[in-house]
Amino acid sequence: MAEACGVKRMKLGSQGLEVSSQGLGCMGLSSFYGAPKPETEAIALLRHAIESGVTFLDTSDIYGPETNEFLLGKALKDGFREKVELASKFGISFAEGKREIKGDPLYVRAACEASLKRLDVKSIDLYYQHRIDTRVPIEITMGELKKLVEEGKIKYIGLSEASASTIRRAHAVHPITAVQLEWSLWTRDVEEEIIPTCRELGIGIVAYSPLGRGFFASGPKLVENLENNDFRKTLPRFQQENLDHNKILYEKVCAMSEKKGCTPAQLALAWVHHQGDDVCPIPGTTKIENLDQNIGALSVKLTPEEMAELEVIGQQESVKGERHGNIATTFKNSDTPPLSSWKAA
């Protein structure tokens, strides 16, 4: 069934994890992109993805918060758990309305136990540190994650939005299976240092927001249809003064996709797929028709000339606005303190 749909399997990293060559980012079903999807529809979408061969599902305890993990727990009943590679994340805490990044051992363990309960599973296949706590040496956080692997509570360890030096230090404590990062035609800063570091160490690459948070699916008109509580409304690239510039990038992708006989979203996603067989994009969606269209991107073949043309279209100067507003720091350059400086609380 999966192969017939064009969703092949791939090795993610060099530690033995095998996943579908395209995953599904589950965040938008519960939070950040407007009102949550009704539960019955969300479960139908998740199960349709699994039956279509998209078995690598990505969630986090902060999505909702917590409601996305509960949703996946329900969707994975009736024998579906055995069919999927389940990824979740810890590290962003919202307490009393305050956002805090946490990576101390007690928090790591408590977060994992809580996720296992919500997901109603015995083990999480891939467990990421969602954001790096720059107060705690990465070796300390990894030490606790290593224990969770030994106890069978998690199978593989990942990092999200980590700098190259943090990735190296973490990998020295216990092999990192995957690094999750934002990578798309309009977000390419990771190509300089992070991607080469992952490749040198045999770490798989998971590309989130490969469609530019929906921009390459709908272009500027996306913004007109966003709900008031959709956090994309706060992002610099979606502000009118930047949108007028960024729509030129979208129009160029549209023109090329027309020639190729695919949609702009499929072309943008195919570009990520063509970055290498160690890259797994995880586009999110709330609609079955969009999910099927994203699977169609796996059949879009790009020549070296077409890849080069897209590289030019997606140059840094083609994009106006930072990828985040005030809500997030750029974690790429935030390294954790040296091990010698850490004192347990």
TrEMBL record:
Annotated ranges, domain NADP-dependent oxidoreductase: 26-311
Keywords of this entry: NADP, Oxidoreductase
InterPro entries cross-referenced by the UniProt entry: AKR, Aldo-Keto_reductase, NAD(P)_OxRdtase_dom_sf, NADP_OxRdtase_dom
Name the record gives this protein: NADP-dependent oxidoreductase domain-containing protein
Domain of life: Eukaryota
GO molecular function: oxidoreductase activity
A Pfam family of this chain: Aldo_ket_red
Disordered, as annotated region: 323-345
SUPFAM superfamilies documented for this protein: NAD(P)-linked oxidoreductase (SSF51430)
GO cellular component: cytoplasm
Entry keyword annotation includes Oxidoreductase: yes
Keyword Protein biosynthesis belongs to the record: no
Polar residues bias (residue ranges): 327-339
